[in-house]
Amino acid sequence: MKLLIDKSSVGSTKASRRSGFSFVEILIALAILIISVVTLLNFLTIALRVDHTSSAVTEDLLYKSGSLDARASSQSRSATVTVGEVEISGNLYEIEYGRVKRLIEFERSE
Amino acid sequence: MYSKKGVILGLALIMFLVISIIGISLMTLVMGRARQTNDLEKRTQAYFFARSGVEIARGFAMQKSEIDNQYFGDKVFVIYGNLRDNDDDNSANFNIEDVTSFWSESVRSSFEASAASFESYDVVTAVWKESEYFNFLSSGNAGDMTRTLAFMCCEGSAGTPLFDMAIFADGNIETGASANSEIIGDVGTNATDTSAISRQGNGGNGKGKNNKISVYGDVYFGPGTDLDGVEPSDYYLAEGNVVGTLDSTRDYKSIIPEFPDFPELTERDSLSVDSDGSIINDDGYYEEINVGSGKTLTIETGEAGNVRKILVNQLKLEDNSSIELSGSGNLNLYVVNNVVLPNGSKKMAFINNNGNPESIDRVVFYYTGNTLGNLDFKGTLFIHNENGVSLGGNSALNVSGLIIYDGTGDVSMKGTPETHSIALFAPNSKVIMTGNADFHGAIVCNEYDGSGGPDVIYKDIEDEFTEAPLEIISNDGEEAFELWGE
Q1: What is the domain partition of chain B in residue ranges?
Q2: Is A89 a domain residue?
Q3: Chain B partners of A45 at a C-beta cutoff of 8 Å?
Q4: What residues make up the domain containing A97?
Q5: Is the per-residue pLDDT at B44 higher than 70?
Q6: H or E, element range at A42
């Protein structure tokens, strides 16, 4: 059996082994790619969500600041601001935007 | 062949790098967008805080000014505080600081320079007054964002009341000592010293003597005068009249109309009117105009809106002579030297005698002489000189409109002359009335000095001149306005 084995064929087998990628290499490369792609997808999802939220907040803010300016659909409560010994009566207007945030403005009574 | 070793790892790392760059870029973009939104939120809130600051400071300024009109003067105040701390009882306490001594150079640059020291407060507003205008610089702080608004406003005013008192003086008023001296109408002064209004002399008719009533009206002192212990009898007021204070200081000096320069007109021959029918049809300068006794000179004024201008160096009006108007226009009569008028207690000359007494600005008589009397004039008389003027002559001076004197000399009415007018408006001048001189109308002066038994009898303009336009003297006050800037 030993005679049947050609030395050159032994060498070519070694050469073919050398020309390919080891299983470990492919495994590491795949791991890197998977982690990268997953992370990128995660980033993408977060980015889309943040972008969507920002757009929604911006849009709501612009709309609500207009409403506050026009005193439309804003909540108001009587408030008093004391400056030194002078009391200034008025209303504190509040309007919510972006679910939990709010804008505040004080307007004195005529 | 050995070069292929580890290539896949290299490729994977390169792809990792590319993906990372893409990811970081994406996150940077998204974070930038989020930061923009966040900045917009803070900017918007800062803007509303800045507006709130103007509201608060304006409320403060209005309330303070109502109590004390001089409160602001040249002072600069900074009002600052937080609006977000008032959730419990709907009240907020703001601080106020007088920064006049630190910010005297430029409020705007000082305000900007001090911004950092106030950045922990929601609202920071500087307020100061210039003339009638309140200025506000208001910053709203939200997070690290600051918005500043500039606001200027005038709350407006009804203007200074014109001719609502028999005598109004910026300073002292001394009424005549005689029992016959009467002032029928209110008397007022800007002075805050209760001795600024007094009765001349201390014997016979003075306080503690016969106490003859001197004023048939109320007496007013400047705003803030301490009236404790002051009695109406101190001023010899008629029963039911009171001593009070003015709502605000009256500044008549600033509304004196400007005396015009005499116009340069075509020189005409001197005119002597010895018979009726003389007519002046054009503007012109006359060295002398003499209207004979009982004669009439007619001045054609043209159509409505036209102003005929006649400049006379020497005007002489003999007894019962008159200057009348034809047409529908107005007349500006400029007279340089003293008008020569009839001399005698019953003698009078007339200007626009047939005119409507309520059209007080149809004829305006611009005069640089220093004496005028024995004249019946329907129009307004505007006297300009620094030597003073003597009114009334030895008979009467009747002026249907206003007598305006813009100089600082004395305006005197001596002897027994009578002067009738809507008002004598001489805010820079001392008005001296002696003997039995009478003035029918309102007097506005710097000081009033009555000696002997002069009378001032106030005429209510609305009763006498229901349609009288007092446009010659503007008292419209300040119109309310607002101006925003950022």
Answers
A1: 13-155, 167-262+336-464
A2: yes
A3: none
A4: 22-108
A5: yes
A6: helix A23-69
